[in-house]
UniProtKB/TrEMBL annotation, chain A:
One of its GO terms (molecular function) is ATP binding. PANTHER family: ABC TRANSPORTER, ATP-BINDING PROTEIN (PTHR43335). Signal peptide: none annotated. SUPFAM superfamilies: P-loop containing nucleoside triphosphate hydrolases. This is ABC transporter ATP-binding protein. Belongs to the ABC transporter superfamily. InterPro entries: AAA+_ATPase (IPR003593), ABC_transporter-like_ATP-bd (IPR003439), ABC_transporter-like_CS (IPR017871), P-loop_NTPase (IPR027417). Residues 8-238 form the ABC transporter domain. Keywords: ATP-binding, Nucleotide-binding, Transport.
Automatic annotation (TrEMBL), chain B:
Keywords: Membrane, Transmembrane, Transmembrane helix. The keyword Phosphoprotein does not apply. It comes from Dyella halodurans. This is ABC transporter permease. The keyword Cell wall biogenesis/degradation does not apply. The chain crosses the membrane at residues 24-49, 69-97, 128-149, 161-184, 196-221, 241-260.
Length: 251, 266
């Protein structure tokens, strides 16, 4: 087994939105094969953080290293290395599912036979075959999420960024999503997913970071027996902005 | 193909696909081409009716002057048939361009382009090229009407080529303005309204100067119809071509700047 390597390194990144600090002095590292759950209440800065990691936003301060290279200076690195499922999976409503995969593949540098093969593979894997010719505009939210996930995975990125991936999925689809996340992690993909569902984090992640008011308040591994402790820590931070989230550290 | 070109090509391809599956593009094409066909029939009828009179005039206007050029614009002819390709373009280009970036913004898909590692310039250029390809096809179909009789009439190929170049430059300018307006708003309708207003203003900014008898002032230079008129008359001057290129460059640079700052500002 190969030793994990740092895929993503955030160094003191800060980002303002609408004149207010959305993320402040955030530092994180994510290794290959690691699944990091980003927890936080609404407005905690999760989506802003993920948008910066995905390359859709530029940090005001700080640096982002992707596979050891400065990603802020070279946003083109995102092209092949990152797969991103934004919140609510935005789509072009007039294009079909297969046209979406084709477009995303081309935007991510896939062409010809490689693109066709990657599309076939991901359609089969995420069971999108019956939807392939359906317009994205008529898909249910759950189907959109699956299509968004397919677009994010299509080019086999080394970093997968998932913003609320379980939104609108039924329990069967949630279980399937967890399966996909585990498979990707086993294949060495670094995964960062944001959610406000504790169960999602404990089921799919091996590490958790809790954001509150744009700041990282907790970052640590998840063990099998500390779910209640995680829940208590999350509520301590979310309700009281508790800086002394020592329970998990001690555990 | 180099990586930057591949990015632009990928955007163009996707945008063109989206244009072709939207009913708006087809409806606009059908309606405007029908209107132009009707115009062509009327112009041809007028030309045929005045054959005897025209034959008596040595060096008088021919098929190109009476049918070919008036099909493209009514700037030179005026009269009761106001809607040539140029006049229709003032309306349809803003409608086609309105969603290029504003639609992406309202859809929430704009960040997907940024996240693909594409610089703002590639996104803007890719979308602009797609729009231009659609407009080129539309112009070609409009030109086919007068050209369909080329075997039976004497065409002034030079004048028609110059006028077609003028129309092409006008379409390219309006498209660039449309893309720029679309870059500054979330609402496609707002982009269309702004772009239409700017197009009309550029086309008619010299009217006041003309009425005042000023033929060579700043407003005349600023006016798109002034530059188009020379090309419609068959006079290709680098100053006119440069005017169009300048407006296109400024509009696309503004769109690129706006998009780049959006990625910066969020």
């Amino acid at each position: 087994m190969t030793a994990p390597t740092a895929v993503l390194q955030l160094d003191h990144i800060t980002r303002h939105r609408a004149g207010r600090p959305a993320v402040t002095d955030l530092s994180l590292q994510l290794d290959s094969g690691q699944v990091l759950g980003l927890l936080g209440v609404n407005g905690a800065g999760k989506s802003t953080t993920l948008a910066m990691v995905a390359g859709a936003l530029v940090p005001d301060k700080g640096s982002i290293q992707l596979n050891g290279k400065d990603f802020v200076e070279h946003p083109e690195l995102a092209r092949r290395a990152i797969g991103w499922l934004p919140e609510r999976a935005p789509m072009w409503p007039e294009l079909t599912v297969s046209e979406h995969l084709d477009a995303h593949g081309r935007l991510r540098g896939l062409h010809g036979a490689a693109l066709a093969q990657a599309s076939r593979k991901i359609i089969e894997r995420l069971e999108l075959g019956s939807l392939a010719r359906r317009l994205a505009g008529v898909l249910s939210q759950g189907q959109r999420q699956r299509l968004g996930l397919a677009c994010a995975l299509l080019h086999e990125p080394s970093l997968l960024v998932l913003d609320e991936p379980a939104n609108a999925l039924d329990p069967v689809q949630v279980a399937a999503l967890r399966g996909v996340i585990r498979e990707q992690a086993a294949a060495g993909t670094a995964i960062i997913l944001s959610t406000h569902l504790l169960a999602e984090v404990t089921a799919a992640c091996d590490r958790v970071a809790i954001l509150h008011e744009g700041q990282l308040r907790y970052d640590g591994p998840i063990k099998d027996d500390d779910h209640r402790m995680l829940e208590q820590t999350f509520f301590d931070i979310a309700m009281r902005g508790d800086e002394n989230s020592d329970r998990m550290q001690a555990a | 193909m180099s990586l930057p070109l591949m990015g632009v090509f990928a955007v163009t391809r996707l945008e063109l696909r989206r244009l072709f599956v939207r009913p708006l593009a087809w409806v606009l094409a059908a309606l405007t081409l029908a209107l132009l066909a009707w115009r062509f029939v009327l112009l041809l009828g007028g030309f045929l009716a005045s054959q005897i009179k025209l034959a008596a005039l040595p060096g008088g206007p021919g098929y190109t002057d009476l049918v070919g050029i008036p099909m493209l614009s009514s700037i030179l002819t005026g009269g009761i048939l106001p809607f040539g390709v140029a006049e229709l373009a003032l309306v349809i280009v803003p409608l086609l361009a309105m969603s290029t970036l504003a639609g992406e913004r309202s859809n929430g898909t704009l960040p997907l382009w940024f996240a693909a590692g594409l610089p703002a310039s590639h996104i803007v250029l890719g979308k602009y090229f797609a729009l231009m390809l659609w407009l080129l096809m539309w112009l070609a179909l409009a030109l086919l009407m007068p050209l369909s009789l080329a075997h039976g009439v004497t065409l002034d190929w030079g004048k028609l080529a110059s006028a077609s170049l003028g129309l092409l430059l006008m379409l390219a300018t309006l498209a660039a303005i449309g893309v720029a307006c679309s870059a500054f708003t979330t609402l496609p309708a707002m982009a269309a309204a702004t772009s239409l207003t700017l197009g009309l203003a550029l086309a008619g900014v010299n009217l006041g100067a003309q009425m005042a008898g000023v033929g060579n002032g700043f407003f005349n230079w600023l006016s798109m119809s002034d530059h188009l008129e020379s090309l419609l008359r068959g006079l290709v001057s680098s100053a006119d071509v440069l005017w169009f290129v300048l407006v296109i460059a400024v509009a696309l640079a503004l769109a690129t700047q706006r998009l780049a700052s959006e990625r910066e500002r969020g």
